[in-house]
Amino acid sequence: MKMDIFSGLAPLVGKRATKAIFRTIVYWMCLTLIFSGVISPCLGMAQVLAPVSLKEVPVPVPTAAVIPVVTPGVNPIPGPGTDLVFRDLIAARIVKDQNALIRLGKALFWDMQVGSDGIQACASCHFNAGADSRSKNQISPGVKDANFLHGFIGGDNHFGNSVVPFTAHDINFPFPGSTEPPDPNFNVPGHPQFAPNYELTAADFPLNDWFVPTNLVPRGNPGPPPVLVSLFQELEGVSRDTNDVVSSQGVRNTQFVAVQPGNAEDLGTPLPDIFNTVKPGNPRTKPRVRRVEPRNAPTVINAVFNFDNFWDGRASFIFNGVNPFGFRDEASTLIRNDGTAQAPVGTQVFVRITNSSLASQAVGPPGSNFEMSWAGRTFPDIGKKMLSLRPLAKQLVHPKDSVLGLVSQATVLKGKVVGKPGLKYATYTKWWNDTTSVLTPVAGSAVVQKASVNDPRTMVLSPGKAAVVKGKAAGAGLAANEYTQMMWNFSLFFGLAVQAYEATLVSDNTPFDRFNGAPSLNIPADPTALTEQELLGLTIFQDADPVNGAKCVNCHVPPVTSSHTVLDNAPDAQGVPGGGQGEAIETMIMGDNLETANYDHGMYNIGVRRTTEDAGRAGTAPFTNPLINEPFPLSLVELAALRANVTRCPSVPGINTGCLPDDVARFVPDVPVLPRRVSNGAFKVPTLRNTLYTGPYFHNGDSATLIQAVQFYIRGGNFPNTNLHDKTVDIDGIPPLMFPEFDPFVAIRVEALVAFLANALTDQRVALEKGPFDHPQLFVPNGSPAGQPAVDAMLEIPPIGKCGRTAPIPTFLNLKPMDGK
Fold first, then answer.
1. Is residue 650 part of a domain?
2. Is 123 inside a domain boundary?
3. Given a cut of 60, is residue 2 above it in pLDDT?
4. Residue 324: CA atoms inside 13 Å, Cβ hemisphere, count?
């Protein structure tokens, strides 16, 4: 009989909270015993208990299963009960040289030529501690807000307006809009200064601003009898509010026409957009500035530990080699050529690669018409362009770059990097070694994501099936719809290479790591690594008391400081995340009526914004479940509910697949789920490491400084009543930290918590961009000059070698952690 040590407490506070309390008790017992000399770190307690240092957390290793398509149109991926053969990437004959893959990944990540405009790189939104510190033209209206009728690109297209409850005459109905004023009873102003190309200031934050920021937000009572709190009452202490998002600028809205081999910029036709400086919110063509993404860009540093990636987790733990959605895409294939009878030229194969949500994430933005691409560009098009260009041809690479230095064409003269931009060579493998055939896409087989209420982006998710054209040398001139094997498979190696590079970006040398030591590695703890103030902050951070504790540790689980990790979701060798007593599908008692619900571990609704403004984890993939003719959900718990539904969809006896196709069900836990499931408005728990430099914070960029983020938790969220049905129970205020402006003792504790977050979790290698956090030169758009919306004001990020820089990187708006209190 399997025993759950948490079952006794679970009815009181939920399994997640009890496990967090247990982890906290064990953590402190371990440290106390080590410091007192009762036990020795060499006993390897971290191997038995949870790791206490990030050094002890293994970097997930991708393993690949390659399944040939024997009969076209018939999916050969077996269902549950039949194991796939997973091998590491070298054994699977996908990668030949891991170090070469890392070099390729770093080059592709920083290369401005990847973007359709020859400017936008992956790094354009991740250049400052893996995040984005720009402040001009970084505002997007609430384009995912379902409270508004869908405008030109979905949701609310109006900049800076206050949160107005939906009426039949909102700002976008009839589009391009009446100007009916908000309900006068609402009486909460917005941010009327917000507009395309606006320059943010510290005074603009937080977006949801309160007269007394640590006063508990008014709360109802689930009863009995129930006492409800209206939206008007909930926001009676709010001085201003908006559903706008502070995010990252991408490309200008443009229709893709063709690649120009040898040219970094694609051919394209300008399209109208709401991001214009003449009539913001109404689509126009000529005064366009760069469009801004609908969510804030999280850091890529330590992202290798995330189970799924992106805020909503749509970048799947299982990489399919083509797009972000992993096993939810049943059709996309690649072309393999081994030169053998088993794999002749043009062999279609399915790929399923575990531990690879970073690869799934990497292949999303390059095709997105918000982030990096003209609308309609495919990954083979990206491959066709990139394979005609010198890597990083527009950027200098420091000759002492930790990864690319040996292949840099630049030199250092009087302390300055000069000379030729770009690299000397690139390396490829068998998956693109066929130089005698030309591939053309089969008409009608491409998969295109259309804009929806879940996602305003459009992109070609898959070029579809490929037809092999014989008798034409690949080296000859190619038509617009012709590609080599190398070009066709470019998404596979783009994803795996960027992932391999990002997997090196692990910041495991913080004061917090040194304080804990690494018992399993025989690294002793250093009790002097944290100041007294930071130690007090750590105590508050670790306090999981369900009534008065800060409960930070419940979601931001050390040492990764996130709970949506590979470590927590515990996938098995077949890529199936832990179920049952495992961590992938969890139970939690909800705050509205004490009813227990299931949720995806590490995905929570914390009430930053109204649930209806962004569905988050409750979104869907742009692929249809053929058994029920509905989109596949992103949520693992919703997928598990479909698999368990054998009443609606009778399954083969002995193996439950329910309402999921076999090839999808094989990656979903076969566990019973509760009638109540909470995914609406839930987002991935981000890591708090290096958070000093990764502002603004939350998925909508609400807060500019750490004190503002801490105040959010002290007051118990922004929308605890509106989101009550879906909100995690832990967001209920922190009474001992309220009103620091009136109580010096409380002020000391709040400042200590902020100091712990700002200092104890910062790796100085990140702050000083020392290897592996060094990088090539980069030019990022930073809005447009006044009156010149078609022109970019470029911000130069200089090349940095492995020895780093002399001064730390800037914080957002150069703010200090306690600014804005």
1. no
2. yes
3. no
4. 25
